[in-house]
Recover the amino acids of this structure.
């Protein structure tokens, strides 16, 4: 059993949509852009903008590839992104007193 | 940008953010998992096979069993564009227990051999209720464990 993550508040992840993006990506290895958009119920441009901020911070990785003549975009949390998200959740739990 | 974001949320805000994160994670897991329709069809098929076993010829049973093929093809097509789930790191106790109970329930229900069509219909209702309930509990437990894994594991 791993020891609990160190709480560390992350201002970048704390924005509501970015938190939801990270929360959606946390339980999966990767998700397609379209699937993520469908789950979050936001416009392409809005999701792209927030993904770019997370990508610039090194929290999210975006992979573009073509399969059977169709282009796909896969989004996943990087190791740093996963750690930052888990630590941010731990910090929120600490604030609520749930830890 | 990040410098403009509030840095210390109140207890109420933090609880709200946690709830939103939990909902987003659950939604992603549910939409990446096998569809509810697949589970329903699988439960109905298993219940039908268990209920009419002994009442009809083996050929009909095999034909019904073959319905799993289109069902699995449908599942494969459905999951093609869905997110790839993270492998569970440890053994899932609740999931394992429910799976064991499902296997035992199916074995016990096979001992009850229906001799009339009315009895078979009754048996099918019981099978659907038991297997449906257990399948629902199994899905719920695995979703919760995946959410906990996603929110708690740094690897």
């Amino acid at each position: 059993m791993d020891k609990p993550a160190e709480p560390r508040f992350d201002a970048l992840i704390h924005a509501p949509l970015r938190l939801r993006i990270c929360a959606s990506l946390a339980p999966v290895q990767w998700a397609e852009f379209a699937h993520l958009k469908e789950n979050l119920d936001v416009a392409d441009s809005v999701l792209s903008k927030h993904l770019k901020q997370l990508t610039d911070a090194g929290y999210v990785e975006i992979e573009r590839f073509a399969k059977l003549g169709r282009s796909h975009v896969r989004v996943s949390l990087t190791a740093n992104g996963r750690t930052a998200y888990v630590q941010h959740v731990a910090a929120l739990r600490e604030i609520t007193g749930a830890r | 940008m990040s410098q403009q974001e509030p840095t210390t949320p109140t207890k109420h805000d933090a609880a709200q953010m946690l709830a939103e994160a939990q909902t987003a994670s659950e939604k992603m897991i549910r939409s990446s998992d096998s569809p509810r329709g697949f589970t329903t069809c699988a439960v109905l098929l298993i219940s039908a096979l268990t209920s009419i076993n002994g009442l009809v010829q083996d050929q009909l049973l095999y034909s019904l069993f073959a319905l799993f093929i289109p069902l699995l093809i449908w599942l494969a097509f459905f999951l093609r564009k869905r997110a790839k789930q993270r492998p569970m790191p440890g053994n899932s106790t609740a999931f394992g227990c429910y799976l064991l109970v499902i296997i035992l329930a199916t074995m016990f229900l096979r001992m009850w051999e229906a001799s009339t069509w009315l009895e078979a219909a009754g048996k099918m209702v019981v099978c659907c209720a038991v297997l449906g309930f257990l399948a629902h509990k199994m899905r719920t437990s695995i979703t919760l464990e995946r959410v906990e894994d996603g929110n708690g594991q740094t690897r």
The longest strand of chain A covers residues 60-67.
